[in-house]
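User: As part of a screening pipeline, I want to sanity-check one entry by hand. Below is the sequence and the SMILES for pyridoxal-5'-phosphate. Please return the complex as structure tokens so I can compare it with the automated output.
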Amino acid sequence: MAEQLKILLDESEMPTRWYNVIPDLPEPPPPPLHPGTHEPVGPDDLAPLFPMDLILQEVSGESFIDIPEEVQQVYRMWRPSPLYRARGLEKALGTPAKLYYKYEGVSPVGSHKPNTAVPQAFYNARQGVRKLTTETGAGQWGSAMAFACQIFGLECEVWQVRSSYDSKPYRKTMMEVYGATLHPSPSDLTQSGRDLLALDPDSPGSLGIAISEAVEVAVADEDTKYCLGSVLNHVLMHQTIIGEEALLQLAKVGDSADVVIGCTGGGSNFAGLSFPFIRENLAGRGNAVIRGVEPAACPSLTRGTYRYDFGDMAGFTPLLKMHTLGHDFVPDPIHAGGLRYHGMSPLVSHIYELGLMEAVAKPQNESFAAGVQFARTEGIIPGPEPTHALAEMISEAKRCTESGEAKTIVTILSGHGLLDLSSYESYLTGEVPDYDYPQEKVDAAMARVPQVAG
Ligand SMILES: *Cc1c(COP(=O)(O)O)cnc(C)c1O
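Assistant: Here is the complex for your manual check:
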């Protein structure tokens, strides 16, 4: 019998709960701290930024949280998403390994980001919030948020990192089509933007700077709140529907994962796929190796320091204990804009410290080569971010060829690359540099990380 290529779930099989990994961990992650007092932040400290439902999810001790019916309805526009067996790639590699990818590019905006943008917009709208501000790097988060705000009748204002605002014009148009207002960051609309422009009028921007601008505007207006596309516990939790579906899909074909691989920017698509697998591991029902893949030019997990740091450049956010390269570190302008963040989610960082996952870093050219090989064998052109995970999947599959092991490897294709063709053009014409690890820049940024006991 031919093996199934596309493993689908019925709409009625879509999971109706998100999974919170925290209660299952041997110890809880260190709490976020108030930047002034260095005491743990309470729900009231976060209330100017987020609606109460999301704050409660951020600190929840429940293992499962019901997905509101209104959110499920929107999810059903594209969920359950397909799990594919990558037969074409397997054949090209001549590997005994079985390769699977969970494809999140089927969402209206082409990435996993709406899995959290939709509930974030829903909870804000339900609390009577009028406008949401946010930042975006490559534009995926901004377009997801613009799409979700439109559904629930919210205004959406987005600060887009200058380098991608200039180099990715179609994302900008996409956000505007969905009705969002766009600003390049740094902008002259905020104090943090103006301060930075005074120092460097040609600043290419960074996610850390754009976050400062969006937060500054949100806290100044009572009807406005802020939303984040990665890093925080509630964001990672919303993404776990990906892994819950993948577990059901593998069970349908009688398979189970030996290796689970995802790219890590702030950690949300990786966590979304892997946290349900970590639960299975901890419960003794699985023993998959869990592996994050980051860009060699911005390697917060493999080269960063685990300590308290700010989530943004200006130091407005609570202090988060995470693997960091320093909150004012500006990464080299790699094409995978969604992976250019100075820190790693505190929860993913904690899980890494607990030894429940591994991490590796991949350079740009190897990642693009994997993306091209994937497109030629599987048909889908991957976003530059998930090409990092594909590069590691290919490395693992080649190790299987050498050892003769028929491992089952599962990855997440977090988005398609149809709005990133200019990056592929650069790669095909040989113009993509492999940046060295920027030791001096990281050392300088780390010297400015606040001193916090613990
Ligand atoms: C934003 C983004 C990423 C990186 O963010 P994570 O929070 O680490 O998932 C990866 N892939 C795609 C397609 C993205 O849009």
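Points to compare against the pipeline: The chain has a mean pLDDT of 95. DSSP finds 19 helices and 15 strands in the chain.
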